[in-house]
């Protein structure tokens, strides 16, 4: 896809690129296209770093239902990313607050995120920044809405088995990325895309805060 080529170009221009990555169904074709470019020698991840947006609380990285395991299947195990440059929130860390602080420090140490790719929750969430009366700036522990747990049911079998809490980059972590690409596909997201782009900036639609970013792109079908 065109976005995979754009990512490959960014990697060619800045080999030490710091990428922020999402999970969900939406980015699967992008990851497939990136693996394809890598197989053809047209994408090189050897010096790049990655930071994923979020992880379920209480789910260790080795659990096949974790976002970490999802990313290994989709991308990490099939391209030449250095394992030491792959960064992830550990959902099973004994101290969630310390884990979130560690993640913020790691992002800062990497020089910040150059290119952050985002999916869009049907309820307007980005990462696991759920709609509400307030948003949190930094990486934090958060409670998932019933709708989000239903949307993630495929990983766990049933919605009731989806953890009700997660760790997620915060709104400030997201908005500090130098370039943001939000991906949204399917008619089911159309109304949310409209609210994000044309509606008021409100914590009821966390993605609406992307209107404040100077280099945010929305890629839709
Ligand atoms: C999850 C993730 C988000 C993702 C969203 C959309 O809740 N935490 O980062 O963007 O779902 O998922 P999908 O692409 O499957 O619609």
* CA-CA gap between termini: 12 Å
Beta-strand fraction estimate: 15-25%
Outline:
globular
Query: What is the H-and-E element order?
Result: HEHEEHEHEEHHEHEHE
Largest sheet entry: 6 strands, parallel
Helix content: 25-40%
Q: Name the average pLDDT.
A: 97
- In spatial order, strands of the major sheet run 4-2-1-5-8-9
Number of distinct beta strands? 9
**Number of separate helices:** 8
Structure characterization notes:
The protein is α/β, with parallel strands linked by helices and 221 residues long. The chain contains eight helices and nine strands. Helix 2 (28-39) links the parallel strand 1 and strand 2 (49-52). It is globular. The site of 2-amino-2-deoxy-6-O-phosphono-alpha-D-glucopyranose (GLP) has 15 residues, from helix 5.
SSE blueprint:
Blueprint: H1 2-13, E1 18-21, H2 28-39, E2 49-52, E3 54-56, H3 67-76, E4 86-87, H4 96-109, E5 115-118, E6 140-143, H5 146-151, H6 153-156, E7 165-168, H7 171-175, E8 179-184, H8 190-198, E9 216-220
Parallel strand pairs: 1-2, 1-5, 2-4, 5-8, 8-9
Antiparallel strand pairs: 3-7, 6-7
2-amino-2-deoxy-6-O-phosphono-alpha-D-glucopyranose (GLP) is lined by residues 22-26, 53-54, 119-121, 127-128, 148, 151-152.
Question: Key terms for this structure?
Answer:
binds 2-amino-2-deoxy-6-O-phosphono-alpha-D-glucopyranose; 6-stranded parallel sheet; globular; 8 helices; 221 residues
